[in-house]
Amino acid sequence: MRINRLKLTNFRNHEDTEVRFASHINLITGPNGAGKTNLIDAIHYLCMSRSFVASSDQYVAHHDHKYFMINGDFEGEIRSSFKVSCSYSRGDGKKIFVNDSPLDRLSDLIGMVPVVVLSPEDLKLTSEGPAERRSFLDALISQISPKYLRDLISYRKIRKQRNKLLQDYRGPLDMLKTLLEPWDAQLIETGAAIIVKRAEVLNQFKRYLAIQYRAISEFNLEPTLQYQTICPEPESKEAVLSAYKKQLEESFEKEAEREQTLIGPHRDEVVFYLGEMELRNFGSQGQHRLFSMALKMAQLFYYSDELDDLPIMLLDDVFGNLDQQKTDIITETLNKHKGQTFITSANERPFEQKQFSENGNNAWFTVSDGEVSKKY
């Protein structure tokens, strides 16, 4: 999959920007604050319906404007060519269009254009709490499994309704248990499907993680991960269903007291290890950085094997803290990968001009105050 053309209107500091990209490596350089990240964040919007930088769409519109528009022309193996647009206006909210037809649900966009983002924010994956890793896992699987995404959305709705019942109910516990039964049945069935799929994907993914970590790190430690959920054998749906039902029954009084659902995949954890060392608690800053980079490189190659279309890779300012050797390893790996890649950098020194001036499949762009120029 690749994006051939991107047009931005009132998108952050890009009032009216149009860029035609190369099919392989696209390098985007310029000073901090020039608008480099905004270009690839716009691509992320067209792939995932949201920013990987801003917490809210309302902060994205340029200055005093109340709306923004993003248009992209894509090309792939399954869909030969198609257009995706994202519009936002205060009051009307966000809308996604594919070939000028509106999508009924924003979630229908997920997986249409697979994308992987590698940015400094990825340090949160290894250093912060379980929610960061669950979010990564959900995004990882949702782009390759529409059913998983549907189950995830259903589970959140079921849990929300179940929590509302726990919070609003005032009466005898026996009656509450009866009222919870239909919600419990849905929660267990949907939650079990999520857990089983997570276990299946993580079993495959950890092989890719090991390969990528060894490629970019000089540390002689084997990276691995452990999926912690409601039972020790999450690959078996029967085992998950049985454990889920039992734990939900045992936690009934505690849930009634706390007025929230305490059992399920929303409490899962993925623990990362280097050798016998738990990375979150004992890893050095350098180990955290390399592990998080390996996670995203593993995602790139996992998607490349699992999907009919190669994913788009977005790297946002990730080379600033790397030595030249590791920069060369990553850029060479991306150069060998056949998918389309975007790299933003404030520093031009790690990159060879020859690679862009003599290769028609690559392009080098410079950005200054929201203005984009092609260098090579």
What can you tell me about this protein's structure?
The protein has 376 residues and is of the alpha/beta class. The longest helix is centred in the middle third of the chain and has 44 residues. It has 2 domains: 180 residues, Rossmann fold, CATH 3.40.50; 184 residues, Glutathione S-transferase Yfyf (Class Pi), Chain A, domain 2, CATH 1.20.1050. The mean pLDDT is 95. α4 runs antiparallel to α5. The strands form 3 sheets. A 6-stranded antiparallel β-sheet has the order 2-1-4-5-6-7, covered by helices on one side. It has a 6-stranded mixed β-sheet with strand order 8-12-13-3-14-15, with helices on both faces. The protein is built from 11 helices and 15 strands.
**CATH superfamily grouping of the largest domain:** RecF/RecN/SMC, N-terminal domain
Count of structural domains: 2
- The tally of helices reads 11
Under the CATH scheme, which class of the largest domain? Mainly Alpha
Strand content: 15-25%
Spatial ordering of strands, largest sheet: 2-1-4-5-6-7
Radius of gyration: 23 Å
Model regions low in confidence, pLDDT < 50 over at least 5 residues: none
Quick summary of this structure?
The longest helix has 44 residues, at 173-216. Helices cover 43% and strands 23% of the residues. The two termini are 22 Å apart.
